[in-house]
Amino acid sequence: MPHIDYFFATLSPFAYLAGTRLEEIAQRHGATVTYRPLDISALFARTGGTPLAERSEGRKAYRLQELRRQAQAAGLSINARPAYWPTNGAPSAFAIIAAQSAGGGDMGRLVHGLLAASWAEEKDIAEDAVIRDCLAAAGFDPDLADKGLMAGAIAYEDNLEEAVNRGVFGSPFYITDEDERFWGQDRLADLDAHLAARG
User: Fold this and answer.
1) Residue 181, CA distances (Å) to 122, 176, 197 in order
2) Cα–Cα distance between 78 and 72 in angstroms, integer?
3) Distance, first Cα to last Cα, the chain
4) Dmax of the chain from CA atoms?
5) 91, 113, 140, 162: most buried, per Cβ within 10 A?
């Protein structure tokens, strides 16, 4: 059975633009997915990425156009300058880690729900109430927002270390059990084709 490690940041607009296509691809090919949320600022610092605030004006302008185009292509609404961004990504990441450990809900729906809350619904995903609502909407116990925080913090750091060690440098980033790497939501079709070729 194929497996995909999904490295992403809950602050990433491009992870939001992936929608639930990863889950659709995984289901189509009988693949399992491990969700590995991480600190994107720390990842950039470790892998040579440039934080948005430090990029040239031309790169910033291009990013805004690309977000608009990619959202249109994906059929998703987006506010490229959301009211509550950047925010603290750790609480939402800890909730994803806790939900994955607990099971019983829809992980794809949870992840997309949190990303959509930030990029389409003008909500602060560092707020407990927002996280609890997303957990409940995805079929998880909303109390997971406040459980396993120490374990979540450890896993969050471990995800960063594993990402760096495995060549991850952005979000979203998908790695198969064969170490085939795909960076960006615009490479999901390539991931799909790779899994199809595996049979």
Assistant:
1) 32, 7, 15
2) 9
3) 10
4) 45
5) 140
**What is the residue extent of each domain of the chain?**
3-198
> Can you give the pTM of this predicted structure?
0.97
* Fold assignment, 3-198: Glutaredoxin (3.40.30)
Q: Is 3 helix (H, G, I), strand (E, B) or coil?
A: strand
Gyration radius of the chain's alpha carbons: 16
Q: Count of CB atoms within 10 A of residue 117's CB?
A: 24
- Which two structure tokens, joined as six digits, stand for 82? 């959301």
pLDDT tens digits for range 15-39: 999 999 999 999 999 999 999 999 9
pLDDT for the residue numbered 199: 76
**Paired tokens of 10:** 């809950």
pLDDT of residue 141: 98
Peptide bond into 86 cis (omega under 30): yes
Long-range contacts of 162-165 (CB under 8 A, 24+ apart): 162/5, 162/36, 163/7, 163/36, 163/38, 163/43, 164/43, 164/46, 164/47
CB 11 within 8 A of CB 111: no
